[in-house]
Amino acid sequence: MAVAPEHRPTLREELAPLPAPARWAVLGALVLILVVVAAALIGGGSRAEGRVIVRQSPVAFNLRVPPGMTQLEPKTGELVHLERKGQDSIAIEPLTLPAYEGDVGGRLPVVAAHELDKLKQRFPDLEPVEEGKARINKAAGYSLSFRVSRKPRMYGRLVLLPQPVERSGDEPPGRGSGARDGVKMLLLATPAGGAGKATDVGTRGQLKTPYRSFRFGTETP
User: Across residues 137-151, what is the average pLDDT?
Assistant: First the structure.
């Protein structure tokens, strides 16, 4: 195949004056460079997913932090606090449910109502938008979506997530016995963080990564 003058000299022409051993050495070095670059690109794709945070107590869990989010010193009562300044944040606190009878799903809306009252004290302009059951991987919980404020625009999601428990063989399905410990997650996001409406929080933007990657236990996927 003819090579245009502007593309000369070719690699073959550059190497032609060299003895055979030298040519093979140069080619080997070039191949090695290509392998290193390819490995770096593949590794960069893995890092793009972010690093993993693992907590072992008082409740064990892990989640992935996307690039660009900063892990801050947890505030009083918090286990983890992540933030992209001016865009979004996620704070995780321990959750302990009071004693109850029946399915935990029947207890969570009551607890959520109390939590909503607390949020209204913190955010006077809060407007509830949507609430209902939530599931993150294998854990079932309850979610509240809300508008924090209109100026500036900010939205939020509160998730109550009890830790799944093993049931004994003679325990009726759906009973909440022992399902009392877990986490409470508060997610806040602005349009700059990818939230155009309340229900986008945790489902769009960079908060989707820590929210959807959350798992109880210390084993990561």
Answer: 95
Indicate whether 86 belongs to any domain: yes
Q: Pick 219 or 124 by higher pLDDT.
A: 124
| Whether residue 187 is found in the same domain as residue 78 | yes
Q: By C-alpha distance, which of 80, 95, 100, 104 is closest to 165?
A: 104
**Residue 194's CATH number:** 3.40.1000.10
Domain tally for the chain? 2
Based on the fold, state whether residues 24 and 67 are members of the same structural domain: no
Question: Does 143 score more than 80 pLDDT?
Answer: yes
